[in-house]
């Protein structure tokens, strides 16, 4: 008998040339306390997953297509938040004119209030809150039961 294999997304790591700056941005966004495992490897543990930030020296051993800070143009890091407008407002207050807003809080056709911004390295970040009953049900269906 083969036992089922459980696979869970545990963390996402962002590579940067400026660890303190990127960590501070995500600390403001998530409210999580940064855990500096080394001066260039930091984890921000949220209730559902860990966001790790590291300097490029941590991945220098990858010799083909070496990851580098600011090169992400293919992914969006998405955060489910209680109140998109409040989190967006907190980031705007803390970051001021440096906050790169792609789309301010906007109601999406599927019922989420969503704000799309870029982190200091240019990675896309989506903040969203399910607002309609359909969007809340969709979120309940996708949230893993641990």
- Strand percentage lies at 25-35%
**Beta strands, count:** 8
Spatial extent as radius of gyration: 17 Å
What order do the SSEs take from the amino end to the carboxyl end, as H and E? EHEEEEHEEEH
Class based on secondary structure composition and strand pairing: alpha/beta
Written description of the protein model:
With 146 residues, the protein is an alpha/beta fold. Helix content is 23%, strand content 33%. It has 3 helices and 8 strands, in the order E-H-E-E-E-E-H-E-E-E-H. A 4-stranded mixed β-sheet has the order 1-4-3-2, covered by helices on one side. Strands 5-8-7-6 form a 4-stranded mixed β-sheet. Strand 6 and strand 7 form a beta hairpin. The radius of gyration is 17 Å and the shape is globular.
Summary keywords:
single chain; 146 residues; alpha/beta; 4-stranded mixed beta sheet; 3 helices; 8 strands; 23% helix; globular
Helix/strand layout:
Layout: E1 11-16, H1 19-30, E2 35-38, E3 41-45, E4 50-55, E5 76-80, H2 84-95, E6 100-107, E7 112-118, E8 124-130, H3 133-142
Parallel strand pairs: 1-4, 5-8
Antiparallel strand pairs: 2-3, 3-4, 6-7, 7-8
Outline of this structure?
By secondary structure, the protein is of the alpha/beta class. The chain has helices at residues 19-30, 84-95, 133-142, and strands at residues 11-16, 35-38, 41-45, 50-55, 76-80, 100-107, 112-118, 124-130. It is built from three helices and eight strands; from the N terminus they run βαββββαβββα.
């Amino acid at each position: 008998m083969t036992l089922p294999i459980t696979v869970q997304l545990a963390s996402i790591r962002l590579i940067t040339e400026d660890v303190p700056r990127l960590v501070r941005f995500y600390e403001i966004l998530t409210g999580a306390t940064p855990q500096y495992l080394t001066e260039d490897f930091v984890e921000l543990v949220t209730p559902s997953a860990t966001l790790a930030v590291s300097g490029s020296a941590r991945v220098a051993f990858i010799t083909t297509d070496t990851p580098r800070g600011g090169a992400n143009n293919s992914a969006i890091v998405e955060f489910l938040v209680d109140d998109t407008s409040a989190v967006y407002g907190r980031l705007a207050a803390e970051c001021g004119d440096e906050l790169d807003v792609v789309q301010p809080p906007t109601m999406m056709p599927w019922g989420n209030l969503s704000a799309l911004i870029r982190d200091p390295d240019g990675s896309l970040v989506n903040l969203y809150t399910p607002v309609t009953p359909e969007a809340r049900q969709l979120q309940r269906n996708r949230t893993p039961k641990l």
